């Protein structure tokens, strides 16, 4: 028995590699999506089966163990292809196979544009959740596979809403086929158009805020709501050791300065902020829009009740508790006993409560006190003016 997985590129037989075409001509049985099978000449496969689900393909292969079987897949087998899942299933069954690559849609678009693609950010929005703003935040030209609910227009609409409407983009329709079409325009213009089902999108570099630790205080929209200052905020982020795909909680979010920086640091994760003050909630919403952090979700209410239904966190910051610190800590640990936890306190009573909340649960509290002074000019002199000291309490 011989099993070959063949990348068919755009789905046109003429676009196959010579090795791929030879494998299909020698195959006794060819499996794959109906669209791909219909593009093959009669010389390819004495028998054909229009199948695309892994379990169905695997069952058909098992039923024809003595034949030379080829499975055709669109694009390249190594670029967001069903070949990965099928390959694992074949390995679990102890069935050896060979992979023959095809030409991917990213290669076809780059060729059509006459430019290299090694510096592009590659993202799949084909049948899966995708945050185009987070993808474009990396500061590279960003290539999107599209399909299902996500089309070039929906992706561009999300980017336009984040302030990237003037950025240039190009949509490639039916790449490699006779009906190939390139549509150029701004993100705002592309968001208002319709495109063929077989389309990809390239968005040029977007000027979006990127990951940082300690944005200047004046970068945020502020009012009378207390805000965690830059130096303390940087220390909080360091204590939480945020990873790009973390789920994070910010309890008592205030202006949202910590929430925003969490969302920038965890660009592939999600941030959940709780705040009970209506004016503060409005500031959080404004700062979320200013920094285009779509992965920041706000709940208006008092913790711990406001935390109900939130996903288990990897790390939690408690900046305000309204007297409910012990129950908030309990809720965080109940959601994830191994959660990374940081509590800020400016009052000695809050410091005592935070240490007690950890020690009563058998955890060791690590206390760091941060005193920050900033210069203020007085004539020709520069004087240091002290901010209130802040305690950061973390679990060891």
Oligomer: single chain
Main sheet attributes: strand count, strand direction, barrel closure: 7 strands, mixed
- Structural class from helices and strands? alpha/beta
Task: Report the span from N to C terminus.
Answer: 57 Å
Outline, from the CA principal axes? elongated
DSSP strand count: 19
- Quote the average pLDDT: 94
- How much is the radius of gyration in Å? 27 Å
Strand order of the largest sheet: 13-12-11-14-15-19-16
In which range does the helix fraction lie? 25-40%
Q: Beta-strand percentage?
A: 25-35%
Poorly predicted regions? none
Treating each run of at least 4 consecutive H or I residues as one helix, how many helices?
Answer: 13
If you had to describe this structure to a student in words, what would you say it looks like?
The model has no long low-confidence stretch (mean pLDDT about 95). Helix 3 crosses helix 4 and helix 12 packs parallel to helix 13 (about 350-360). The chain has helices at about 20-25, 35-40, 55-65, 85-90, 105-115, 130-135, 150-165, 185-190, 230-240, 255-265, 280-290, 325-335, 350-360; strands spanning about 1-5, 30, 45-50, 70-75, 100, 120-125, 140-145, 170-175, 180-185, 200-205, 245-250, 270-275, 295-300, 315-320, 340-345, 365-370, 375-380, 380-385, 390-395. It is α/β, with parallel strands linked by helices and about 400 residues long. Helix 6 links the parallel strand 6 and strand 7. Helix content is about 30%, strand content about 25%. A seven-stranded mixed sheet has the order 13-12-11-14-15-19-16, sandwiched between helices.
